[in-house]
């Protein structure tokens, strides 16, 4: 087993341990119990739980990028809706528990610069991806020409973050958010004058 | 000192203790240390930290209702923007630490039905307040007649929740959210045909 496999095994074990124990009570032993490694072996690879969790956030980030890059669809409009769906639909089993653990980690970000830095990367990446699609759509006349692509992208990320927080906090399903975001895209971003000006 | 004053003192001490220690590490002793009561006196009023924190969420809820009910403004449009501002602008000193503690409590909601029930009340109240303003504005022609007041209110709450989460997680200030929500209200909710149809 090379180091890549070992790292993946530890990351998988961390995922399961977070789903089972949450973030606040998580110990290196809990992670070891979910893997075929000893606690000592974990400490060989990661100095501390903090280092392991920073590596885990990077591992999640790589998965997030794989999942949302190049969204399905032919047009900027379709690609925008695909991207929104990819973020709203969590792909994993046990995603409720995992979403909860991630919100705990988010709440800990002010105390842990290593967490904040990595969590910010998720938001920045998502803003950038949305911005590219919006700019493509402005250029080809799909979206309104006076749209501020950067601020609109940040606004959509805020909505998606709110939906994820509400899912954990109140258990509210995301389907209302999906419907309202779709409506926002269709009536607020799409260039209604397209046919007139074409 | 009557029981009301005692309860208020304990709530104030809980606020300070949460700002200082966060939620995860908070003990009854930390709260006692911020008050002029002993830990035993706190246990006389509240059986457990969980009970005290449920009472604290109810205390916050009362303050939230006082703060956002009857927002300033003559028209539904002005009242809607005032209400959004009241939620985005945190009134308290130490609000960054407090916002963090509240997000920790939110992340704990799935494990604590008492928390979830009380946190849901905040969102429900805010949705109801927004809905009343939206309905007033639909009735008087301020807002588009085909607006779904309930879903629009929920969408705005999702945006406000997202802004609060981002402030904790990435430190992003709320001013972009304020600008985009204002634009959303003006170009998406306001009835642009008002003068034509009036």
Structure description:
2 copies of one chain form a homodimer. Chain A has 198 residues and is mostly helical. Chain A has a domain at 70-197: Tetracycline Repressor, domain 2 (Orthogonal Bundle), CATH 1.10.357.10. Chain A has helices at 3-21, 28-33, 39-45, 49-68, 76-88, 95-108, 113-139, 149-169, 175-189, 194-197. In chain A, helix 5 (76-88) runs antiparallel to helix 9, helix 6 crosses helix 8 and helix 7 crosses helix 8. The longest helix of chain A is centred in the middle third of the chain and has 27 residues, at 113-139. Chain A starts with a helix and ends with a helix. Mean pLDDT of chain A is 89; it is low at 194-198. The interface between A and B is large, with 45 and 45 residues.
Q: From the alpha carbons, calculate the radius of gyration of chain A and give it in angstroms.
A: 19 Å
Oligomerization status of the protein chains: homodimer
**Tally the helices of chain A: what do you get?**
10
Shape of chain A: elongated
Q: Report the mean per-residue pLDDT of chain A as an integer.
A: 89
Q: Might you state the CATH topology name of the domain at 70-197 in chain A? A: Tetracycline Repressor, domain 2
How does the major sheet of chain A shape up?
Answer: none
Q: Name the CATH homologous superfamily of the domain at 70-197 in chain A.
A: Tetracycline Repressor, domain 2
Say how many strands of chain A there are: 0
Which CATH architecture of the domain at 70-197 in chain A is right?
A: Orthogonal Bundle
Strand content of chain A: under 5%
The N- to C-terminal Cα distance of chain A equals 59 Å
What pair of chains forms the biggest interface?
A: A-B, 45 and 45 residues
What pattern of helices and strands is seen along the backbone of chain A?
Answer: HHHHHHHHHH
The CATH first-level class of the domain at 70-197 in chain A comes to Mainly Alpha
Uncertain stretches of 5 or more adjacent residues of chain A: 194-198
Structural class of chain A: mainly alpha
- Percentage of helical residues of chain A? over 70%
Domain HTH tetR-type (chains A, B): 4-64
GO molecular function (chains A, B): DNA binding
InterPro entries (chains A, B): BetI_C (IPR039538), Homeodomain-like_sf (IPR009057), HTH_TetR (IPR001647), Tet_transcr_reg_TetR-rel_C_sf (IPR036271)
DNA-binding region (chains A, B): 27-46
């Amino acid at each position: 087993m090379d180091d890549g496999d070992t790292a993946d095994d530890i990351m998988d074990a961390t995922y399961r341990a977070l789903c089972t124990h949450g973030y606040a009570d998580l110990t290196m032993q809990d992670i070891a119990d979910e893997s075929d490694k000893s606690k000592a072996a974990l400490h060989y690879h990661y100095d501390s739980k903090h280092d392991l969790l920073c590596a885990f956030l990077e591992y999640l980030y790589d998965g997030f990028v794989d999942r949302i890059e190049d969204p399905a669809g032919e047009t900027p409009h379709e690609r925008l809706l695909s991207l929104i769906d990819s973020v709203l639909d969590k792909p994993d089993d046990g995603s409720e528990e995992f979403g909860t653990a991630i919100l705990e980690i988010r709440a800990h970000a002010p105390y842990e610069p290593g967490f904040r830095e990595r969590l910010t990367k998720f938001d920045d990446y998502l803003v950038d991806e949305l911005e590219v699609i919006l700019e493509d759509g402005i250029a080809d006349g799909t979206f309104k020409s006076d749209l501020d692509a950067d601020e609109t992208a940040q606004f959509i990320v805020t909505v998606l973050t709110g939906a994820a927080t509400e899912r954990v906090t109140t258990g509210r399903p995301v389907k209302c958010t999906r419907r309202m975001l779709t409506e926002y895209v269709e009536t607020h971003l799409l260039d209604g004058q397209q046919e007139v000006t074409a």
